Write a sequence for this structure.
């Protein structure tokens, strides 16, 4: 009787081990099949098998530098525009405060005199 139990136990263990290996294999195949392929973008490191000369990398560097400078000048323009808008809003706020301030002090003084 105990021998039969051991046989069942060994059979169950083999079955579970086989299922685990099967699911690992399926998972590996899924990962290999479903992972996104890298873009064939020659801007990164170049296409394998092709030799790029110094001129290519210098042109690439020049293009990136131009993009950077364009972005920097655009950001500077935006900062200047925002500073002007802030200055205008600040002046408007001061003028509104000045209009309200005499009305409050003048109106408050007249009410206290009566």
């Amino acid at each position: 009787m105990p021998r039969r139990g051991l046989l069942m136990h060994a059979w169950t263990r083999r079955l579970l081990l086989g299922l685990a290996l099967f699911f690992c294999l399926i998972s590996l195949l899924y990962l290999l099949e479903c992972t996104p392929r890298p873009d064939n973008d020659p801007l990164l490191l170049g296409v394998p098998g092709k030799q790029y000369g110094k001129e290519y990398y210098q042109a690439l560097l020049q293009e990136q530098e131009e993009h950077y400078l364009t972005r920097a000048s655009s950001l500077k323009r935006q900062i200047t525009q925002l500073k002007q808008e802030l200055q205008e809003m600040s002046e408007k706020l001061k003028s509104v405060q000045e209009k309200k301030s005499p009305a409050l002090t003048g109106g408050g003084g007249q009410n206290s005199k009566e």
